[in-house]
């Protein structure tokens, strides 16, 4: 059974940094690409970043390029999202999700999700 657990969310001031973690279990980790998504109150869930399984190809939505970095540690079944220079518009619940196949930032392409972790950027 696929299980994903996010952690690392917090209240942070604008310009601050956070590192989110996603711990995976219950499946063969190496075969899955991983995505980070977020959902702000009253808005649809959107793709933030994703990373492929074997060759660590990454994608980012335009608004986080240069500020966020996704990485994975296959030995630990972990994926991370380093978020720097955080802005109030980054406030959302952040989710990780996994899928087999090409990496994508489309929500509907993912079937297995974690429960989310809250990130609040405010002074």
Structural commentary:
The chain contains no helices and 11 strands. The chain has 123 residues and is mainly β. Strands 2, 4, 5, 6, 9, 10 and 11 form a 7-stranded mixed beta sheet that branches. Strands 1-3-8-7 form a 4-stranded antiparallel beta sheet, with no helix packed on it. A hairpin with a 6-residue loop joins β4 (33-39) and β5 (46-51). The chain starts with a strand and ends with a strand.
Which characteristics define this entry?
11 strands
Fraction in beta strands: over 45%
Uncertain regions: pLDDT < 50 for 5+ in a row?
A: none
Radius of gyration: 13 Å
Instruction: List how many beta strands DSSP finds.
Output: 11
Please give the alpha-carbon distance between the first and last residues.
Answer: 40 Å
The average pLDDT is 94
The assigned structural class equals mainly beta
Q: Provide a count of the helices.
A: 0
Shape: globular
| Biggest pleated sheet | 7 strands, mixed
Helical fraction equals under 10%
What's the arrangement of secondary structure elements?
Elements lengths: L2 E5 L3 E2 L5 E8 L7 E7 L6 E6 L6 E3 L7 E6 L4 E6 L8 E8 L12 E2 L3 E5 L2
